[in-house]
What we know:
This protein has 262 residues and is α/β, with parallel strands linked by helices. It has 8 helices and 8 strands, in the order ααβααβαβαβαββββα. It has helices at 6-22, 45-48, 78-84, 91-94, 110-115, 131-144, 159-172, 237-242; strands at residues 60-65, 98-102, 123-126, 147-153, 175-180, 193-198, 209-217, 223-229. An 8-stranded mixed beta sheet has the order 3-2-4-5-1-6-7-8. Helix 6 packs parallel to helix 7 (159-172). Residues 31-35 and 236-262 have low confidence and may be disordered.
Amino acid sequence: MKAEPISQVDEHQQATALDSLLSREDLWRGQQWQQQSDCLSSGYTSLDEVLAGQGWPSSGVCELLSDQVGIGELTLLLPLIAQHIPLNATADKQRNGAVALVAPPFIPFAAGLAQHNIDVERIVWVDCIDRKEQLWALEQALASGVCQLALIWLSTLSVTESRRLQLACEKGHSLCFCYLPSHLASQSHPVQLRIQLHRDYDKTVDNAATELTIVKRRGGWPIAGFELSLLPRYLAYSDWQKSPSKPGHSVSSDIIQGPWSS
């Protein structure tokens, strides 16, 4: 067998190494979309269009930033939760893991979740006050591989903690969503996706829309605010104002939707 020239061997090795590097999902190539596999639809067409892979990542840490409650922050993830633990699943899927809710601000409303085709018997509700215990429980759930999806509500998250959660997701091939306050948007967390949610009740809107701003998305540039309908029409502030059945009734902007309402 005739040996190849050393220069050709080196070029082949370099090309192989480059192809291997470019195939990594954690490498961002500017405006060029990454080829991400196994992405999960968000359940919202307009949101899927701006997410890498046309949906949520299959694993890793994502952050939802907001200073308000009841603006659709949980509604945004209900279709995803239903994909992981559907109510009317086959026998095989019913044995396939659970979804963890760590330190939610309100008691989960089982009937409302069931109305969204979610099997509430496979929801693990972790109710603890101590922050270290919350993070420990989340890390165990993500790394175990049993909870392929976990949600946590936190007031702060350090870069070190974010990296630790990312490693737990890689170990368990799981996906984590962290609800955080908006002021953390300036921090450089090593996460897959960061979305900021805002609802302006002073605006006259007819579709009860929540404004979403993609602060960071792996595989693309940030996107300025766009509206996504996440609230039922009867909770729209403008509908209360226009209601003929309540003449002279003034509505406070403090009226909110409980995040566990259906």
